[in-house]
């Protein structure tokens, strides 16, 4: 976004940065629940299928709200509407933190999706009004970068906060209410499988279960919750439980690792009990409520309060158009407006439903977004569960790995913004928008196909990061396509495509979760790869030189 007018102010950069922070907050609220997945299920006593439906509720509402919210931003201005959207989704984020059962969680997620629906259509309109055409792709990539960076930060920060919000002196003992599944404690080999003198050779969860059972003479079959609680608390209170094996062989959260680093003689009773509880949770997954589960509610509440404050900041720092901003001088207004193609203003009285539904070009765009979201949504909903179930990664490490994927991907948006502007200058809008939106989906498919054959968790993480980079590199071209074909109806056009894209995400989340549970995670990867091939095919058919409306149609829209 070069500035040939030396005396022009730089308010346009401030507006783009503020929009980027709004995008960051958007994904912070959207993604955080996936990291807290297992704790929410344990706390609310709901199934994985229930949780997947709650994830899907967000995307259904997000899809339904896209076009109407985009039109509202055109009708009442992006400044007012984005402020209302931000405050709304922050309040509903607090409602999620207060949910008590599946119904309240589902409803809160639905309302969160509805209030977030207008964010990107409004951002697209704001960029269209504040940035010259030549820099539209790059400016769009900066705003989208905020979303991806927020998603990356959400996974890392949420994992850390969940652990941090459970104080070190919290009692680690269990009660009958903490027993989730008695059968888990009957699922270990007979105690004579591993001789007592070979306990130091523990290498698997089965070995660990035998060791723990032999330590307190845990009965082979648990039928009485009260007796089981007594036995488990004996294990938790055992001062030398880790004396005969190295707990560093287990993947424990950061608080457990910190205790492990201390010599056995220097640990306080509370630290020993906390460590023993974490070991017990690792040995019998799904058997008892996890200690860190109490940290998810205050974490999500904190995000909601933060969002309300950022919404107020957005209102103070932005305006609907450059000429309305008291800090933008005449030179900057001229610089922006002279660099924009003259497009008809959108009518404020209606949405061009007929034109949208009748445009083959917009259907290509919508199909591109639908299948792209089917392949991509795994990263922000099911990836933490995959890391837990496939590799046994603890919550803060799951957050870190998810962060690596989304953080690296965020730079794909910047590269994609540069790529679409560069291609457009040299090959025109037809090639400049369709290549990033279409061809880059093929490497996404190849990366997912490789995952089942990769040897370890970090190799998988970097393969998924590569996939996410290629996926996100297409976002700026999609936004620019909406701005090119929609003119001042850009918010409506991106809303229309996002609607179908989020129907894809809503459809994919429970289906992929079911595939993972019934057929295994490899089939989830295969399904995602197929979706990316379809997205790439439709992306190559998009033509950014074909406007949605002619001037006369735009003036009569509604």
Q: What is the percentage of strand-forming residues?
A: under 5%
Main structural class: mainly alpha
Biggest pleated-sheet summary: none
Helix content: 55-70%
Number of helical segments with 4 or more residues: 25
The end-to-end span amounts to 35 Å
Uncertain residue segments = 1-5, 190-201, 551-558
Number of strands: 0
- Residue-averaged pLDDT: 83
Please write the string of helix (H) and strand (E) elements.
Answer: HHHHHHHHHHHHHHHHHHHHHHHHH
Shape: elongated
Summarize the topology:
Elements lengths: L10 H25 L1 H8 L3 H29 L1 H21 L3 H15 L2 H12 L5 H29 L40 H12 L8 H12 L17 H7 L8 H15 L12 H22 L12 H9 L14 H6 L1 H17 L1 H4 L1 H9 L3 H33 L1 H11 L1 H10 L6 H16 L2 H12 L3 H29 L2 H21 L9 H6 L2
Task: Describe, in short, the structure shown.
The protein has about 550 residues and is mainly α. Helices cover about 70% and strands about 0% of the residues. It has 25 helices and no strands.
């Amino acid at each position: 976004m070069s500035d040939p007018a030396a005396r022009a102010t730089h308010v346009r950069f401030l507006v783009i940065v503020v929009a980027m922070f709004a995008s960051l907050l958007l994904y912070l609220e959207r993604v955080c629940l996936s990291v807290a997945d297992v704790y929410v299920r344990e706390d609310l006593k709901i199934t994985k299928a229930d949780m997947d439906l709650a994830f899907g509720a967000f995307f259904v509402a997000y899809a339904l709200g896209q076009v109407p919210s985009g039109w509202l931003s055109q009708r009442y201005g992006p400044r007012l509407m984005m402020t209302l959207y931000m405050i709304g989704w922050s309040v509903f984020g607090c409602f999620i933190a207060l949910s008590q059962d599946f119904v309240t969680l589902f409803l809160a997620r639905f309302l969160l999706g509805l209030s977030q629906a207008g964010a990107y259509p409004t951002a697209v309109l704001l960029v269209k009004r504040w940035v010259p055409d030549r820099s539209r792709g790059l400016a769009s990539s900066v705003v989208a970068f905020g979303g991806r960076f927020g998603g990356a930060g959400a996974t890392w920060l949420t994992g850390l906060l969940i652990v941090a919000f459970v104080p070190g002196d919290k009692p680690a003992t269990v009660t009958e209410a903490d027993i989730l599944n008695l059968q888990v404690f009957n699922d270990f080999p007979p105690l004579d499988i591993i001789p007592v003198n070979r306990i130091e050779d523990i290498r698997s969860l089965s070995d660990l279960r035998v060791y723990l059972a032999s330590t307190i003479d845990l009965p082979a079959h648990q039928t009485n919750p009260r007796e089981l609680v007594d036995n488990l608390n004996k294990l938790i209170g055992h001062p030398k439980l880790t004396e005969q094996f190295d707990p560093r062989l287990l993947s424990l959260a950061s608080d457990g690792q910190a205790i492990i680093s201390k010599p056995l003689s220097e640990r306080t009773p509370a630290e020993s009990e906390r460590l023993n509880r974490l070991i017990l949770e690792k040995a019998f997954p799904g058997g008892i409520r996890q200690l860190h589960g109490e940290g998810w509610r205050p974490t999500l509440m904190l995000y909601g309060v933060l969002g309300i404050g950022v919404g107020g900041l957005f209102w103070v720092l932005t305006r609907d158009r450059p000429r309305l901003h008291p800090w933008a001088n005449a030179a900057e207004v001229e610089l922006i407006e002279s660099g924009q193609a003259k497009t008809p203003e959108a009518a404020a009285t209606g949405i061009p439903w007929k034109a949208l539904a009748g445009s083959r070009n917009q259907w290509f765009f919508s199909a591109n977004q639908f299948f792209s979201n089917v392949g991509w949504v795994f990263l922000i909903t099911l990836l933490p569960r995959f890391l837990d179930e496939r590799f046994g990664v603890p919550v803060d490490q799951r957050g870190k790995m998810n962060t690596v994927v989304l953080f690296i991907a965020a730079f794909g948006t910047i590269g994609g913004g540069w790529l679409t502007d560069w291609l457009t200058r040299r090959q025109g809008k037809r090639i400049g928008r369709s290549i990033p939106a279409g061809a880059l989906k093929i490497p996404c498919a190849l990366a997912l196909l490789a995952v089942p054959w990769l040897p370890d968790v970090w190799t998988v993480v970097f393969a998924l990061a590569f996939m996410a980079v290629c996926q996100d590199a297409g976002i700026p071209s999609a936004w620019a396509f909406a701005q090119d074909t929609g003119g001042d109806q850009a918010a409506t056009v991106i809303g229309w495509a996002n609607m179908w894209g989020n129907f894809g995400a809503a459809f994919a989340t429970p289906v992929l979760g079911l595939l993972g549970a019934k057929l295994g995670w490899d089939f989830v990867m295969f399904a995602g790869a197929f979706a990316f091939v379809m997205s790439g095919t439709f992306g190559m058919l998009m033509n950014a030189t074909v406007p949605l409306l002619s001037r006369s149609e735009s003036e009569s829209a509604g």
